[in-house]
Amino acid sequence: MILNRIFKIDENHAGLEVSKAYKDYRFPVEMLANGQNYHGIDNTLNKPHGKKELLNYIIKLLSKGTKQYDPFVNQVLQTYSWQDLNDALEILLIDGVIQVIFKNQKPRKSIEWLPKIIKLDPRALEDLSNEVPDFNVELLKLTNMIDRLIYKTKNPLKENILKWIKDVEIKDQNDVSIADRNSFKKYKSIILICAYYISLEESEQKIPLRYLSNQIWNKPKVLSLYKDDVLFLTGLTLKELDSILLPDLNGNLDSPLIMISPLEDFQAIITWISNLEVCNINHNEILLSINNMDDNVKTILKLIGVQNSIFESFLLTFTVLKEKLIKENYCEAQLFISNDLDKEIIKLRKNILKIEYVRQQFEFIVLEELGRGSFAVVYKVFDPYTNKIVACKVLFPSSHFKRAYKNDGTEYILRFKREVKLLSEKLHHENIVTVEKIHLLGSPFWFTMPLANYSLDKWLKNNPNASEEQRIKIFKSIVSGVKYLHGKKKYHRDLAPKNILIYEMGEKLEVKIADFGLAKDPESHTLHTGKSKHGYGHEDFTDPEQLNSLADSTNLSDIYSLGALLFYLLTSKLPKKIKYVHVTCEKVILRAMDRRNRRYQSISEFESELVEFYPNI
């Protein structure tokens, strides 16, 4: 082998992963190199490198099996130059299409890596092993989809799409071919991105591009590979495209947010049965719950596609439970759930989460970060199971707490679980936010809630000319929620503009209190309640006594915050400006924010004095 025909790589290349194997030497004797990211063979072939023919040739050779490097090179060099082959190998390696095993020729003296074996990456092999569809059938399906999406539109881009379908080729303004039947994935993707953009824009809808990619290709990132091509061909700006086909932040998350909904629904019914008092069980309700669980099991089976041993074990255990419930052996049933069925559910959940297309079907798509506190972050997310955009509050991972607070986050996990318990089980009021989906079975912990249009601070910025009457109506709703809380002997302890959510319901506004991470529940036996040194509230709106000691907070802490919020609502200024800005009900605000012994001692007392200034509201 001539030296200039040795393919060499830089081990520190940003796009590469290398792993070294030891045998009988102190030094690694083999090194496997592969690309970190893989975006599909079509994407690699259609990059503007001018080596599509050679890349195709190499892939076809390797698709027949692993090759020894020397004979492989000799075969390719009968048709192509060494420089082209070297460039092609680098492209394929960085793109994750191939893997190369290098051998350390002199491990005891020096490190001299020489290529030994070349083969296709398993990800590329999987793509190639998929059955090649009938092109004419696929084209007919694509044409029908386009007809449904854009047949009524007058958008000028429609003509381009119809021409691409007719010609079975996409060409740019310079008559250069971008994609055709030989790169069908790219061809289909570009056409559908354009068609969905037109359709959604005209119907004033938005969906994540990741969701659309999952629906079309059962893979989340395929369509994003062709965004630049779409922008080039259509003249759209990235902002315009992203405003309809929403980008996501999933790649930046510490962990994916996934809930396999039919299994969670099944688990919820099981939990309900476990907590029933045997003496008060209604048999008709049990029979109805069995029917609901049967429906969930059928859905799970559809998701899995084929029965496997874990599902069969789960199904057998569930069948035993049904027999006990039908025969009204409720004590046995509850014991059986805790001893047997719960374990089967855990095993089934782990098994389902290993199935990639199922994960993608239920993984939340994170669109943007709405805000973060000392122990959690709130995201705007798309739920693919319900096709709804919601807010999702996610507890930070343990690594965050170790880095920020030098602890394992136990206190914050307890806070988070207490917040979920309060909102899902104990607090039900029109002015308190509701939770929808809850995930507390393992990290990351999270729950979803309806997505608000604004937090209070953002609403005020967007509505600087809002009337005093409207501002007081919002405040009355906040007071109503806090009064309900205090009636339940619970205190929020973090009433601040970012924790007041505004929902636009036509011309009406709905106001809801959120973020109960600091809420105090006297019924809670958690040792950490009230002892945190971190995240004790928003300083401008927090009772000074609470700032000194969270454990000393009482109902009077919330009354202080209400006074601060009232000033903020009426003036759009922070409470520390109260000495410089006059408001109508200044007397009420000052007393609410006074020392505890001079402060209103109850919400009712606070309300009664406020009515003196606003009797008609």
TrEMBL record:
Matches recorded under InterPro entries: CC_SR_Kinase, Kinase-like_dom_sf, Prot_kinase_dom, Protein_kinase_ATP_BS, Tyr_kinase_cat_dom
Keyword Disulfide bond: no
A matching Pfam family: Pkinase
The UniProt record lists the keyword Transferase: yes
Domain Protein kinase: 364-617
This protein's UniProt keywords: ATP-binding, Kinase, Nucleotide-binding, Serine/threonine-protein kinase, Transferase
Residues given in the record as ATP binding sites: K393
Protein name: non-specific serine/threonine protein kinase
Native species: Paenibacillus shirakamiensis
Organism ancestry: Bacteria, Bacillati, Bacillota, Bacilli, Bacillales
